Amino acid sequence: MSTDNLREVVKQKYGQAALRAQGTGASCCGSGAAVGGCDPITSNLYSTQQTGEIPEAALQASLGCGNPTALAQLNPGETVLDLGSGGGIDVLLSARRVGPSGKAYGLDMTDEMLALARANQNKAGVDNVEFLKGEIENIPLPDESVDVIISNCVINLSSDKDRVLREAFRVLKPGGRFAVSDVVVTGEVPDAIRKRVELWIGCIAGALRDSDYKAKLARAGFENIELEATRIYSVEDARQFLAGQGLDVDAIASQVEGKFMSAFVRASKPVRKG
């Protein structure tokens, strides 16, 4: 599948997810959909306190695999950018942490998600937020304008991850931090999984190997690269996730067990010397 075609599939599926969150679309449980609250990867990621701080629609539209706002260090006055901000949950939570003297940007390419995110911003009454339309491979912000980049299971959806990481490096200030949640792989992924476009939407088929992720970050210029597992998926998790995809889970069980994990990926942009 070409890059443009994959991008259109992602836009369509995430547009549908935004409509579902607003109660105007089909249930995520139908047809073996790979996105939405029925996905074991995307469920139970936020604390009760956090969910109480944001509108329900923002939570319903969250398709992430982790909670970067709980793991990333965010300080008052900083500027944060969320790559692939969806319904805005991580942007709104980040905005509260950086306070009125800080700023939180959300970047998304899907009109429906941007509309939902802006509606959620209005409901939450958060002013220090701006949602931008664009692609994570071409971030519409100036060089060295951001203190922290977060993302929640979105980089895997790009077919040009090297470009995404180069763009992240470009917009970060010297000493800026890269702190994202993503799904990574600790071994070879079965071809049968790679070929299912629906699984790109669920972050699995596009997952990088842990060593590849670190290598790509280093090539982009990052240092202090760390990868911390936050959840390792079992065969039973995979069985639920792959239901309806036409795969014989028992046949590939040995190739799936313990291979996929949600991870928190940290790195930093070197401080300019001299």
Describe, in plain words, how this protein is organized in 3D.
There is one protein chain. The protein is an alpha/beta fold and 274 residues long. The protein has a single domain, classed as Vaccinia Virus protein VP39 (Rossmann fold, 3-Layer(aba) Sandwich). 38% of the residues lie in helices and 21% in strands. Strands 1, 2, 3, 4, 5, 6, 7 and 8 form an eight-stranded mixed beta sheet that branches. It is globular and about 55 Å long. It starts with a helix and ends in a 6-residue tail after the last strand. The relative contact order is 0.15.
Strand elements, count: 8
Distance between the termini: 46 Å
- CATH structural architecture: 3-Layer(aba) Sandwich
**Category from helices, strands and their pairing:** alpha/beta
Tell me the name of the CATH homologous superfamily: Vaccinia Virus protein VP39
Question: Mind telling me the C-alpha Rg?
Answer: 18 Å
Q: Tell me the series of helices and strands, N- to C-terminal.
A: HHHHEHEHEEHEHHEHEHHE
- Which fold does the CATH topology refer to? Rossmann fold
* Mean of all residue-level pLDDT scores: 79
Percent of residues in beta strands? 15-25%
Shape assignment: globular
Query: How many domains in all?
Result: 1
Low-confidence stretches: 24-44
Percentage of residues assigned to helices: 25-40%
Can you identify the CATH class? Alpha Beta
Given the structure, what is the number of helices?
Answer: 12
